[in-house]
Each structure stands twice: as C-alpha cells, then as structure tokens.
Amino acid sequence: MITGSRIGQYRVLALLGEGGMGKVLLVEHAVIGTRHALKMLHDEMSNNDMIVQRFLNEARAAGTIGHRNVVEISHVDRVEGGGPWYLVMRYLEGQTLAKFLASRAAPIDQRLIVHVIGEALNGLQAAHDRRIIHRDLKPDNFFLTTVKGDPYRTVLLDFGVAQLGHDAGLVTRTGAVIGTPQYMAPEQHRGASIDHRADLWAIGAIVYEMATGRFPYQGDASDPAFLTGPEIFHRMMSRAVVDPRRFNPALTAGFAKVILKALEVDPGRRPHSARELAVALAEATPRDRGAPSGIEVLSLYADELLQGGTPVPPIQSSSSALRVVPASAGAAERRDPQSPTQVMVPGAPMSTLGASASQVSAAVRPARNLRRLLVVGLCLAPVGIVLGVIAARHDSSDATPARAGATDAASLASATIPSLDARVADAELPDAPSPDARPDAAIPPDAPPPPPVDAGVPNAAAPSDAAPPRPIDAGVRDAGTTAPQSAPPETGRLRVVILPWAEVWVDGKPLGQTPVHTKLSVGAHRVRLKNDTKDKTVTVTVTAAKTTVIDETW
Questions:
Q1: Does residue 158 share a domain with residue 287?
Q2: 552 vs 496: CA distance, rounded Å
Q3: Do the bridges between strand 22-29 and strand 10-18 make them parallel or antiparallel, or are there none, so unpaired?
Q4: What distance in Å separates the CA atoms of residue 203 and residue 209, rounded to the nearest whole number?
Q5: 496 and 425 assigned to the same domain
Q6: Highest mean pLDDT among 101-110, 155-164, 201-210, 288-297
Q7: What pLDDT shows up at residue 389?
Q8: Fewest beta carbons less than 10 Å away: which of 237, 357, 437, 498?
C-alpha cells in the first residue's frame, strides 16, 4: 500500500508490520486527523471464508468488551470494489510482552509480574463476563504501552480465534485445535470443548515464563527450547510441571503454588475466574524492603478486580476444590464443608475463592469487628467504674471515707476513659463508624432503667455539696455519644511514577523504587527522587482523602 493513498476515510502514513495473513498500517483519519492502526487481510485471504469469519470475529469480540485493557476496534469494512477486508484499531506505541521479555534477562520481578498480569487479567475478566474466550493468549498478544500514571499498561490483542458465547461453531470445526502449543491448555491439545479456564491455563504458562525464563514442561537445561505440540501434550499427561522455584528461588512459596494451580491438567482444579487468579497472585506477593505488596499494585492498576463486578459463576467439577496458598506464613486455612476452600488472610475476614468480587474485595480491606469490640468495651468501662465506686462506699464506715471514695472514683474515671479513647484513635480505623456500630446499640431500647449509683449503699452519708449521682446507663451513653473521642488524623495518598525508575524518600524515610503508592498525613512533605542520572528533591502538599501524583519521565 503506497504511503499517502486512501483506504475509506483513512490516509496511509506508514507500514507497521506484515505477516502471512495481512499487514498493519499506520493511518490518519482524513477529516479529524486522529491516528489509528489499520489491520488489512491480504487479497487471497479475503476470499477464504474461515479467515474472514475469524477477522470479523475479532472485531465483534473487541467491540463487545469495551475495556481499557482490551484493544479498541472502531471500524470494520471492505475496500471498495470487493477488495480486502480491514479493521481500524486504536494506535498504541510500545512493544509486545514477547519483545519485552526478549530484551530483559529472566526472571522478571514478582511485583512487575503482578502489575502486567493483573492488568491482562483485568481485561480478560471483562471478556469472560461477556462469555468471550480468547483461546490464543501468549506474550505476542500482550501489548505494553505507557499512559499517565501507568508505565506498563497492558492491552490484550488479537481476538481472531476467540469463542463468543455459544457461537464458536462459526469459526471452529469440531475437533479443531486452536492456539499456540506452548500456551494451550490440555483440553485444547485434545481438541475437546473448552471454557474460560483454558485462558487461565495460558495465563499460568505466561507467568511461569516471566518468572523463570522457561516454558512449563520444558524441564531442565538439557531440554530443547522449542517443543512440538505432541511433545508438550505427552509431557502434560506423563509428568508434573517443575516447581518454578527451582529456576527462581526468589519466588515466594505462595506465588509458586498459585502458578502451579493455574497449570493444573484438570480444569476443575484451576482458579474459577481471572479475578480469583489475579487476587491469589497479589496476595502471595508481600511487601519487601519498602516495595509495595501485590494487593497495593493491583489496587493501583487493576482496581476493578478488587472492587467487584459480574463474576463468571464457579463451574462444578468432581475434582477436589481449589486450594490456594495463604498470603503469608501466618495465614490460617480453614475448610467449610458447604463451600469451596477458604483462606484466612491475616487482618481480614474470610475470603471464599470463587466467591463474588465484593467478597474478594472485603477480604483485602480491614475488618470492622475491631471497631465494634472497642466501642462495646468503651460502653462497658464506666459500668465497671461505677461498680468499683459502690464497692468502695460499701466498705466505708463514715462520711469522710465516702467523700474520699467519690474523689478516687472521679480521678479513676478521668484516667480510664481517655485511655480507652486513645486506644480507639490508635487503632487506625480507615472508615467512619457505620450506623450500626453506635454505643447506643449495646443497650436494648426496651431495657428497664438501672438503679442510681448509690442505690446499693442506702446508709452512705454523701456530703451535702456533692453532685447528685447519675444513673448507670447515663454514664454508658455519655461515654459513647457525648464524651469527646480523639479523631484519627486526616490522611491523603502520594503516588510516584518515575520512568524508567527512581528511588524514593519521603521526609527522609526510604520507600523503595517507583512506582510508589503510600498514605501520608495531610500537609507538606519533602520527597527525594534519585537514580543513576538524576537526584532531586521536591515539596508536595498532601490533601485529605485525595491522591497527589508525581509522574515524570527522566
């Protein structure tokens, strides 16, 4: 195609690439001047019904999903006069994951894997929610580009062999083998019917490659780098995948086990959804020397996976339920006989793998039970104080000790109540108390009023100038509703993204390499950024409940 020629409404600017089935051109809209990538079939391929069906299938699939982690296709048509078919896509600048891996020595850092794969799984979950199965996931179909605040935006490409709902027969004959052998699930090798879990096997294979520099089933260093489809399938049926920690001891045990679960031969033993796999990989990636945890990375770049959505329903299988490694060595695993395996995450409620996205989201947020416990304790503390006063008065024999007892009780109350308030403030409760967590809720509305403080000491001679005692329940209610509590300090967030990288210090405290996302108190903070070529210090102002961003390319 000659530069400057027209294809419909688009002017050809350059040839971006060419293959056996077609070419990709850089084009510009003739009217509004926007740039796009135009994918065009070769003339002879446009006369092949199956190739054309797959070409149109790609347009339908990508157009249906509409997600930032899936390539956007805006137009599909045929050149006038019965010419070749073409489709118009969003133009992306960057490189494929395959080229990225070829340019860097394996293994890839575990957090970077969570970043790239988390975004890919974000787009894949959107596809699966619409009953679209990609069927040919591989590093060549992951495109890495840079957008503001995200140095590794991952976009899924090439839905040409995707299975759309129940219409797979449009493009696939029974028993046909679709995909790339190194990344095909066992059921794909057999030519059997597949579901979305075949895509999850492919993701497991890609993660294995990123973490080790080798393909699953490749074996030791004496094995050839390339295995044929039959060789791979034979190994699937005859041997287990080598533990990735054999090639990369730096992997956490939990991360390695999640990879192996994704590569299970039996689909029923794999994660139930892309969301579940992403969260499991993130939970198995803890903080390390100031570097963010996997959950923090996921919350930055694929937050939808933590917020929820419309999950793919778990598929029943006769196989044993999925077992995922706890997020840390301190996590305790419990099995509910009526549900899939459950994992207890330290500091969070039970999360059921295969459950809805809202349950997964709750599993990675601080539990509210601590707040309720502290509030109930705060309510009951004055009752104990009052009972102590009653006991002190009961042991008294004249008015002078009674006055002393009242004074002691007052000093005890002033010492104890603020202490409990401080405990509530120091608990770092991130959310405002829920309406059902009020101290009043601890007292049934129909409960009879308790007796006054001195009701149990009828003969006590209280001094004439002493303040009249309050009922017990007044003390309880005052502690929860009128006694001032020290509010937690206001905080905001700071996000730092420096390309290619930089070490970050905030107020003299090292936070590790970018990207960094941290919570800070409201106000001014000094941020130092340093790498091999540059060293600068800036002052930023953090605002309550907002994120301040430093995004630079050096």
A1: yes
A2: 8
A3: antiparallel
A4: 10
A5: no
A6: 201-210
A7: 58
A8: 237
